[in-house]
């Protein structure tokens, strides 16, 4: 997707984008409700604000590219704090103000979810009807595409490949991204059946743009601006479709350099720019059950539908604590759940910015924290810290919940899992899983040339009494194996083994588990046609020179090769996009090999070869590549 650098903004992950989900089982809340503030009184939160100012100042001092950060905190219908820090443009000496707009990335998906329930309120769509009812021209190579619904699109369970990476981020507006995505999907297979599992999918939200256009006659951006932003009085928010004057938006910074304004051409997926204060109008509407300043924007049932757990009927769900909503990453956010606080959460990243958005329906609180992406590794911890301290300061919490302590459990003897050793695939890079005779686990990852340890120092993980493999000092994530088995809709049995990872994200208040790789079995040797392409390199011909990918990647190239440790697969990728193991479908096409829920099965490639104007080309997504 982005910059082809495997960072995959418009999403979340450890580090730059934090994984969000429901807290792990077994963690008991240690903070009990105290004497809360009367409803007629809105606290001022001086201690919380002081802590947050110091936390933001510290991360900005540690990360030079974190040039600007902005925040707003809402209690009921009162904006109790808003503040901007740093410089919107270092080059032009423009300080960030509370009206400086930031690209909020995938937080934009909340607006797509809201648009969906508004359209259902108006009986223009049925969220559970196939989108082919509204898009008769939509098609894919997998016949199951006819079962994709708007609910699937808005809850990451459609089975669409992931992200159309061509021209998604750019330094000038590039029109037609959604139509381009629909067109390229006609030459792609689904990576899983609709509703089988949920894995982060930007393409789903992009296709929902096409649904909105079909049923309203309005382009998605126009619909949101007219029917959501305008009635919510979000006057400092919108989709960037034209250049803006200096000082209105925060500018990108990367490796010490300031870049021109960033345009996100995938509007529903991640294209909104906004201010924290404007976003608190949206939060206030959610807290009001769909009403803002006496005006109903959406039904109360629509707000409730967005916050309903969409994972209940998934067939493959090895991380049951993960609870997607419609547009929300989590409708039971894990960190705050450790203090018995119910929160809806969405984070977002673009190539250059990182954002956290929270709504606490019972506590009647909202928060938006946004800034240059250099601060992104600390964004979730700061956001959780602000909210928990505000709840403590107002008396809702008697004390802050403790952080997870990585106390390494006692050694134990694992069941016989020797068959779990082997090669695993995901969206990023193949993994080599080794289990020695003493039950020790070692993990390596393919870097394009050779296997290297997944973690510095090549640690050995040992099985412990809690059922997880730990490193000796407990500072690293812990791991275990999980299986998903059953029968698919065609009657074919399946059995997938996942390498599971457990981390304590953000403020380290609780664990989150997720599958990070899927074991793959050897296949018959690849055909002579594929053998002839091994070690070939390909360069895109139709990526805009204004795209972030083209501008920040010195030499955009993809390679077609194989992996000696796992016969029968095609290894496709490059240093800036990672490496994926693909299954040959015929002599000219190869597609995804894994079905991994949550995040590590996202943005999977399908490649095919054809002749275009007399020249052999490789197509992946909507990119057309020629032989180098």
UniProtKB/TrEMBL annotation:
It comes from the Bacteria. Residues 59-379 form the Beta-lactamase-related domain. InterPro entries: Beta-lactam-related (IPR001466), Beta-lactam/transpept-like (IPR012338), Diverse_Enzym_Activities (IPR050789), TAT_signal (IPR006311). Coiled coil: none annotated. This is CubicO group peptidase (Beta-lactamase class C family).
